[in-house]
Amino acid sequence: MSGNTIVKDIKRYPDALTVKEVAEILRICTKTAYKLINENTIPSVRIGRESRVLKRDLMCYLRAKVG
Q1: Most buried pick, 15, 25, 27, 43, via CB within 10 A?
Q2: Which residues are within 8 A (CB) of 22 and not within 5 positions of it... i.e. 6 or more apart?
Q3: Residue 13 belongs to what domain range?
Q4: Taking the model in full, what pTM does it have?
């Protein structure tokens, strides 16, 4: 999948992503997504009992991994 395709796919998601959406974008299981969030590898905020990841933070994480 090319970089342009990934950006197009991510644009359809809201600005604050659920853990499930993060897992879909990264193509990992939700358990691994929770692990990355709990280790603060991917920054997140808690809203009630749920975690949300800002789309821009996820993009920064991806850029750091690629570059």
Answers
A1: 25
A2: 33, 36, 37, 42, 53, 58
A3: 3-66
A4: 0.84
